[in-house]
Design brief:
This protein has 186 residues and is an alpha+beta fold. The chain has a single domain, classed as 3-Layer(aba) Sandwich (NADH Oxidase). 39% of the residues lie in helices and 16% in strands. Strands 1-2-4-3 form a 4-stranded antiparallel sheet. Helix 2 crosses helix 5. The protein is globular, with a radius of gyration of 18 Å. The termini are far apart. The structure holds flavin mononucleotide (FMN). The site of flavin mononucleotide (FMN) has 9 residues, from strand 3. InterPro entries: NAD(P)H_nitroreductase, Nitroreductase, Nitroreductase-like, YdjA-like. It holds the Pfam family Nitroreductase. Keywords: Flavoprotein, FMN, NAD, NADP, Oxidoreductase.
Length: 186
């Protein structure tokens, strides 16, 4: 990783238009391995991952199609194509699954720790020239989809993290000047 950490943080953009090139499973595993150095209270490591890359790509695309378009068998091919266009171009998918601790403090900590891991993963991918987008489509919560991924009761899918190569860099949406977000105490 030759860019500075400052540059990677500031220049990373969510990539919403991938070019269809697949991302190797070994790249994904390497990214998750380093990303797991995220801070996490009590070393609970409150995360697990469902990775769909390489051979898993077709399977996850079919699962997403079947779960998100209930009547897809009856629709014209054109319409299915339109509805599933978003599934085709990412080069790998990672579903980040967190436990839903019954204790509210621990639950918040665990979701926070997994979020730190996700951002680590996004930055590491960016450093390798791989774009990402953290997605939270409503259908991630569907029992049918959760079942297809073998997500257990008491677990939550925190993110569908898309990985992929891209041809165009999206423009950054301006951030609010930080002074407007700070209250100086004392
Ligand atoms: C918790 C979370 C959920 C998100 N869900 C979606 C989503 O469902 N669809 C989407 O297009 N982008 C999603 N994003 C990405 C944001 O749209 C993106 O981070 C934001 O536009 C800022 O752009 P940047 O990441 O390029 O700085 C999500 C980001 C976060 C942190």
């Amino acid at each position: 990783m030759s860019q500075s950490i400052q540059a990677i943080i500031a220049e990373r953009r969510s990539i919403k238009k991938f070019n269809g090139r697949s991302v190797s499973q070994s790249d994904i595993v390497e990214i998750l391995d380093v990303a797991s150095w995220a801070p996490n209270h009590g070393n609970r490591e409150p995360w697990r991952f469902i990775v769909a890359a390489e051979n898993g790509l077709d399977a996850i695309r079919n699962t997403m199609k079947e779960c998100t378009i209930p009547n897809w068998g009856q629709l014209p091919e054109e319409e299915i194509e339109k509805k599933t266009a978003g599934f085709k171009l990412p080069g790998a998918f990672v579903f980040v699954v967190v436990p839903e601790d019954v204790r509210q403090k621990e639950r918040l900590e665990d979701f926070s720790a997994a979020s730190a891991l996700i951002q680590n993963a996004q930055l590491l991918a960016w450093g390798k020239g791989i774009g990402t987008c953290w997605k939270t489509p409503a259908w991630m919560e569907l029992p049918k989809f959760r079942q297809a991924l073998d997500v257990k009761p008491g677990e939550r899918i925190l993110a569908m993290l898309q990985f992929g190569y891209y041809d165009e860099l999206p423009k950054a949406k301006a951030r609010t000047p930080i002074e407007q977000k700070i209250t100086y105490f004392g």
